[in-house]
Amino acid sequence: MSDSVIFRKMTVADVAAVHRIEELSFTLPWTKDAFYHEMVTNEHAYYVVAEMEEGIVGYCGMWLVIDESHVTNVAILPEHRGKKLGERLMVAAIEAAKQQGAVMMSLEVRVSNEVAQNLYRKLGFKNGGIRKGYYTDDHEDALVMWVRFDE
Ligand SMILES: CC(C)(COP(=O)(O)OP(=O)(O)OC[C@H]1O[C@@H](n2cnc3c(N)ncnc32)[C@H](O)[C@@H]1OP(=O)(O)O)[C@@H](O)C(=O)NCCC(=O)NCCS
Asked: Does residue 66 sit within a domain?
């Protein structure tokens, strides 16, 4: 089977595959319905998927509002982690955000999620503030991270 990956805009046909990765990745997964609504009713939503011959292996969701992009969620299928796919996916998402007119990107990440923080830092993200008790399951704090594309 080919190892090649393409990065493309998500469509409503990808909802089930993306939702499966979401469930395998987060303790507070979004519902399938939530992804469906992102695709059909949220005009600010722009999602990028990573696709291999076997199917969708990762996704990065964003909300694009005027010149700002905010990452809603990003995940790679567990068996494909550690192979630079997350990094390539984020680079593709940043490229898409720039093309849509964004000049900065922000996100929240669990303070304990060092793997994701390392990835974001590698791509130039800086630490912003802390959102106390942001995650509703265990009240863990969120670290806000952000990057300006012109810096
Ligand atoms: C976070 C995630 C998307 C990273 O994707 P990935 O494909 O595994 O990461 P990559 O192989 O592209 O690695 C890119 C960088 O991330 C960091 N990283 C990746 N795996 C790491 C690990 N096991 N330990 C520490 N840092 C790691 C490193 O900075 C790495 O760059 P380097 O290899 O040059 O050091 C993936 O681990 C994931 O889906 N995690 C579960 C969901 C999640 O936590 N999402 C983020 C929510 S905010």
From this structure: yes
Q: Report the Cα 21 to chain-centroid distance in Å.
A: 12
Query: Is there an atom of ligand 1 within 6 Å of 116 CB?
Result: yes
pLDDT at 133: 97
- pLDDT confidence bin for 69, thresholds 50/70/90: very high
Dihedral over Cα of 27, 32, 35, 41: its sign:
negative
Domain around 49: 6-148
Ligand 1 atom closest to the Cα of residue 75 is 39
**pLDDT on residue 90:** 98
Does 76 sit in the ligand 1 pocket, CB within 6 Å?
yes
DSSP secondary structure letter of residue 31: P
Q: Is residue 1 one of the residues assigned to a domain?
A: no
Pocket test for ligand 1, best of 110, 118, 144 (most atoms within 8 A of CB): 118
* pLDDT digits 0-9 by tens, 85-109: 999 999 999 999 999 999 999 999 9
CATH number at residue 70: 3.40.630.30
